[in-house]
Amino acid sequence: MAELDAIYNAYNEITDAGENAPQHVEAYSQIIAGAQGTEGTKRLAAQFIPTFFKHFPDLHSRAIDGVFDLCEDLLPVVRQAAIKSLPSLCRDGPQHTIKIADVLCQLLQLDDEDLVIVQGALQTLLVQSPREVLAVLFTQGIKGVELRDKTMDFITNQVVTAFRTRVVTDPEIELFFVDEMRKAMGSVSDSELESFAKIIMQTTLYKTGALEDLTGLSHIYVAHITSEVPWNIRNPDSIKRVLVAGKLSMPLFQRNISADVLLEFFATHILPRNEFEQLTDKQRAHVLRLYTDSITTGHPSPAALKRAGGLLGDLLVMTVPAEQDSTTPVEFAQVECLVLALDLLTQDPDLLDRDDLVARFRNLYNLTQIQLSSIKQAIKTASSKVPQDAEQITTIKTLTRTQTIHNNIHTIVKAS
């Protein structure tokens, strides 16, 4: 009881002093000491230390340490009150913001109700001092293994919301946020890279076209392919990273950013026949679709197109037999991508004069012409059955997609 009375007396002494409050150092020291006392004094210390913090700059370090101790207290009411008070300490002592933001970031590891309190305090501090909080999140949170998931969750939710709802409006802070994400992209997982890319495309800077160096961003996406592990075409994770890099790059290509860096990666590591042969049929279809889309939308240089022509021509020769009566099966989904890409390269006379390609085009023309008739009849038969169940609907969709692929191939090779 005596300890509680001492805390109350110290509180009254400082309050009654008014403008002379800074002179009552011993009284404030008494309040700080309460953080190490009984349950009752801890509750009072959690309330009173922040109340008078601004009056005693010489005691800031002791006061902050006292509040930090209370943030780890076993009593939830004490712990949560202390956590809630941390942003006010930064408001009255901005020089301590980095230190306090770092502790709040560490406290993201707490669970349940405590985590909600921590997130609220960190969000309040984000509004007060956005640059400092963002710096801590990316230097301490993202780099810490234990903290990483909780920090990513805070960034993708609370931080993004602060910008989206215009709680944080400074363009320089938004640019700082984007730059921090760019730097972090050098060592992130596929899902984290996609999260950062999505956030960047949601920023006002990106939407208004004010964000510079989109070419550098596309290079970051390509560098991600080999950022964690060496490239290995037989490793499904390597192929997945290529597809992720390509998917994220597409919006940049639509903004007149060149796909040359991505195309060069393909030309070196994927499209050479000895490499391509190691892929599964499903992987081949995916990477060829991505490559075709990149050529179509990525403003490739003449040098990139010329190199692409030879590689794609070799793959078409590998994929399609020269004679119609060959027993070699044709993967038309892959062939569609190849002929679509080759169609863009028809300005290269050397490519068009290749006898092995001419033979393949002739064979494809005949094959697709024959199969289109069969596919059309199959669609007609499947569509005539009523009522249609889920299996029939799926069959019709598959046949329609197959018909589209064959039509695309037939049209292109007919004109070649």
Automatic annotation (TrEMBL):
One Gene Ontology term of the biological-process aspect is: negative regulation of apoptotic process
* Keywords on record: Apoptosis
A GO term, aspect molecular function: RNA binding
- What GO terms fall under cellular component here? nucleus
Q: InterPro entries annotated for this entry?
A: API5, ARM-type_fold
- PANTHER family attached to this UniProt entry: APOPTOSIS INHIBITOR 5, APOPTOSIS INHIBITOR 5-RELATED
Homology family = Belongs to the API5 family.
> Under which name does UniProt file this protein?
Apoptosis inhibitor 5
Q: Which organism is it from?
A: Mortierella hygrophila
